[in-house]
Write a structure and sequence with these properties.
The chain is mainly α. It is built from 15 helices and no strands. This is ABC transporter permease.
């Protein structure tokens, strides 16, 4: 194999990893605030269908990206109200949100199934390995920014404090509910992370029912795999993206393997990773936000 063989494989790995990076980063920030959101899969679907429909109607892909962000904030706000204000069970709420969003996206996007658009244009066409669209580069920049935000800024310290002990943070006068709303769900967390609708506007510029195909669940697993560290999320996403792209290598070498089995490789890899991680439960407990999934009632 030469560079001409590996170039499209590496390119596809970067593209396949991008939606996982965006979704996992959003979930990471959300979980750092102590809120567990299992609705990432459904939220990705809402962002994908909203962005795609607006792009088809207006012909402006950047307006589609904007509407996808707004729709993401709206559905993240629903999760925030239910889990933070009302105090509903976070696991049940996230699952219900995924089921609701899956049905809603299928209903709203029914008339757009099979339609295609001109996706985000790739850059640096003269350099094959750098011939990626803007969002691929943006995902890498976001990893660096989120890492810096969590480790080097006062707001990042406040966010981590809220996630570790909301009662202690509240006693110190920190606005726990506000932090969980703004950083955990609406602005910094899942409100933007899962909503760039990269799948329907760039990776496969079309709409198909349930097109996320479990990527939201992989993103949640990726956060645990990365032990809540943005840089490891980047590496882990590229690992999963590489597993997705490996089917190209296998098919290119002429192996007679079912394409359905090859398509299942990323999900098999997810199961293997979760099994390996679960063997060291103590380490996970040490690195996970201490109040993850626990409701908080302000005392004043």
């Amino acid at each position: 194999m030469n560079i001409q063989t590996f170039s499209p494989i590496i390119s596809d790995t970067l593209r396949a990893a991008t939606p996982l990076i965006l979704a996992a980063l959003g979930e990471l920030v959300t979980e750092k605030s102590g809120v567990l959101n299992l609705g990432v899969e459904g939220m990705m679907l809402i962002g994908a269908v909203a962005g795609f429909i607006v792009t088809v109607v207006t012909g402006n892909i950047y307006l589609g990206l904007l509407i996808a962000l707004i729709s993401g904030i709206a559905i993240a706000l629903i999760h925030a109200v239910l889990t933070i204000t009302i105090g509903a069970n976070q696991v049940a709420t996230g699952l219900a949100l995924t089921i609701f969003a899956s049905g809603l996206s299928a209903f709203v996007g029914a008339d757009y199934v099979g339609k295609t658009i001109t996706g985000l244009q790739q850059m640096n066409k003269s350099i094959p390995l750098l011939n990626q669209d803007l969002v691929v580069y943006l995902s890498i920049i976001l990893v660096i920014l989120v890492s810096w935000f969590l480790r080097k800024t006062r707001l990042g310290l406040v966010l981590r404090s809220v996630g570790e002990s909301p009662s202690a943070a509240d006693a110190l006068g920190l606005p726990v509910v506000k932090v969980r709303y703004e950083c955990g769900n609406v602005w910094w967390g899942n409100g933007w992370g899962s909503r760039i609708c990269y799948l329907s506007l760039a990776y496969t510029p079309l709409w198909a029912e349930n097109m996320t195909a479990g990527r939201g669940w992989i993103a949640i697993a990726l956060v645990v795999f990365a032990t809540w560290k943005p840089i490891i999320i980047l590496l882990g996403a590229y690992l999963f993206g590489g597993v997705s792209a490996i089917q190209l290598i296998v098919q290119g070498l002429g192996f007679d393997i079912s394409p359905y089995l090859l398509s299942a490789l990323p999900y098999l890899a997810t199961i293997v990773v979760l099994v390996i991680i679960s063997r060291d439960a103590t380490r996970i407990q040490l690195v996970a936000p201490a109040s993850l999934g626990e409701p908080f009632r302000p005392t004043h």
